[in-house]
Amino acid sequence: MRPQLADGSFWAIPHRGEMLSLSNADPMVLLSYASGLAVELVNAGGLPLALGIAGVYLRLQSDEAAVPVSAMAHLRSARRSFPGVCLTDVVKIRVEGDRLDIPTKLIKSIRASAHTSWKLRGTVTVELLDTSVYKQVRLESPRLEFLTLLGRQRIDLSARAVTLSGHTVKDVAALRARLQSVLEAHRESVTKTVGPAVFERYFQRIA
Description:
By secondary structure, the protein is an alpha+beta fold. The chain has helices at residues 27-43, 47-58, 172-194, 196-202; strands spanning 10-15, 18-21, 62-64, 73-76, 81-86, 90-95, 98-103, 107-112, 123-128, 133-139, 143-148, 151-156, 163-169, 204-206. α1 runs antiparallel to α2 (47-58) and α2 runs antiparallel to α3. The chain starts with 9 loop residues before the first strand and ends with a strand. The model has no long low-confidence stretch (mean pLDDT 90).
C-alpha cells in the first residue's frame, strides 16, 4: 500500500529504472537516498535543510547492519559517540605498497587498531559490503567529516578506539512516515536550494 497524500499523490524513489514508493523501498534504499539528498544540501549551502532530512532517521533507534557508512553511520571514539551521515565521498588507503581509493558507499566499517606497537599505531581495518577486508592499512586522509544533529563534526579515524560502522533503523514504519512528512513540508525549499533536477534524482512526487 502506498502512503498517499490527501490529493492521492505519493512520494517515490527513482531506483534502478523503477519508481519505488516509500512503502516499497527497503531501509537501505531509503537511508541511501535520504543521505544522498542531505549531502547535496550541505554542498549547496543548505545545512539547516540537510539537518531536517538527516534528522528524520538520526533520531530513530538504530542497529549495526550491512549498510554503507555513506547511508547511515555510527561513530564511536574514546570521547564521542554519535550517529551521522558521512560527508566524505572517498577514503584513500595504503596497503602492501598499493594506494586504493574506496568510495564510502562500499564501506561497511572502519575500525582503528588497538595495538600500541609503533608499527601498527594509526592503522585501521576496513571492511567492505562485499565482505572484502583490508587489515593494518593506513588512511591517506584519516579525518572524515560527518553531518550530525549538532551540525558538522570531523574525527580522526586512525586514533585508538575509534569505530565507524554502517547502521540501519529499527522502526522502518516511522522512517517512512517521517521521511514523507519532511519531504512534503520542505519540498519547495529543497528544490530551490539544489534545483529540481538534483532533487528528482533522489525523490519524486507522483500524481
